Amino acid sequence: MNTRRRSFAFAALAYAFAAVMVGTTLPTPLYALYAERMHFSVVTTTVIFAAYAVGVLGALLLFGGWSDAVGRRPVLLAGLAAAIASAVVFLIADDVALLLVGRLLSGLSAGLFTGTATAAVVEALPAAQQERAATVATIVNIGGLGIGPVLAGLLAEYVAHPLTMPFVVHIALASLAVAAVLAAPETSSRTGRIGVQRLAVPAEVRGVFVTASTAAFAGFAVTGLFAAIAPSFVSEVVGVDNHAVAGAIAGSIFLASAVAQLIGRRIVAATAVAWGCAILVLAMVILAVALTFSSLPGIIVAALVAGAGQGISFSRGLAAVVEQVPAGRRGEVSSTYFVVAYVAISLPVVGVGVAAQAWGLRTAGVSFAAAVAVLASVCLAAILIQRSRAAD
């Protein structure tokens, strides 16, 4: 493959990656509109959001290794088909069941795309440039997640047909991505085998895995909170009824995560995870205070700080685990790590929804912040103890 063709393939695949990830967070600032139209509560919003994680996990476990066997392009095209189908379902949704189907399809698209597109983007460039390609893959992945709610919030607030235009725009973006993937050459040698992804953690890395995955759990739980409930915090707790603001807050946690991952990629893994946990504790203190005093600036700062903590602890935690296991077992260990993360992005936020029905949204949010702060503090203490023992 010549240099010009490699550059085109790299750009085309990176665009397709971003386009799909934009769609996965697009509904975030729209949940309040759906709730008003369909008369459901915050707990239903969190369940709809959690359906996304079910789709991601299903795709990761069932199809995680397929692109090594059948090629990157077929799996990417399947992911795009799921993304477009999700947008179509949201366009016609008139009840909660269809919203659940739309989110499930969105999760399926993300699960099919994330690992496969990362590999395809990296493989599109020569070996000497693959570290840069991996960095770009991180940016378009997390950046796309951050752009989704910002785009939807702006369209919902300032353009007619707020429950239609965001998905029409996404269908256009995804359709262009289909053309991009079709135009890009295949990057896989197709040497893998089709099968269900095995989950396992070797005994020699279980200590590191427990601390790293605990940090990932705390960080993804916070990400899920902002992606599902940030609009409710803005409207019900602060009293600001602006979809663009809600979308910007939800997007900011992902954008802060992307920046933190880039800045933190050179930090020693264990040190980075410890810093990530400490930053998460600080973020939860800020969030609790902001919710208590109905402070919009406080919620924004909490989102940015939490995104930084999540980004550092998640990416470097994964590095801390995989660098200690043989190459042949990294796939199953990484998949186990991602399963923990996507359970974290779904179950805790449903708990917040249930708590909000019983205690009110403000109290539920403060309680969540306290629980995550405790969890991150325990993780930080465990890392410090492990490092102290290693030094002895």
TrEMBL record:
It is a multi-pass membrane protein. Residues 7-389 form the Major facilitator superfamily (MFS) profile domain. PROSITE patterns: MFS. InterPro entries: MFS (IPR011701), MFS_dom (IPR020846), MFS_trans_sf (IPR036259), MFS_Transporters (IPR050171). Gene3D superfamilies: MFS general substrate transporter like domains. Its main location: membrane. The chain crosses the membrane at residues 42-63, 75-93, 99-122, 134-155, 167-184, 205-230, 242-260, 267-293, 299-322, 334-359, 365-385. The keyword Membrane applies. Keywords: Cell membrane, Membrane, Transmembrane, Transmembrane helix, Transport. It is found in: Cell membrane. One of its GO terms (cellular component) is plasma membrane. GO terms for molecular function: transmembrane transporter activity. It comes from the Bacteria. PANTHER family: MAJOR FACILITATOR SUPERFAMILY MFS_1, RESISTANCE PROTEIN MDTM, PUTATIVE-RELATED-RELATED. This is MFS transporter. It comes from Mycobacterium adipatum. The lineage of its organism: Bacteria, Bacillati, Actinomycetota, Actinomycetes, Mycobacteriales.
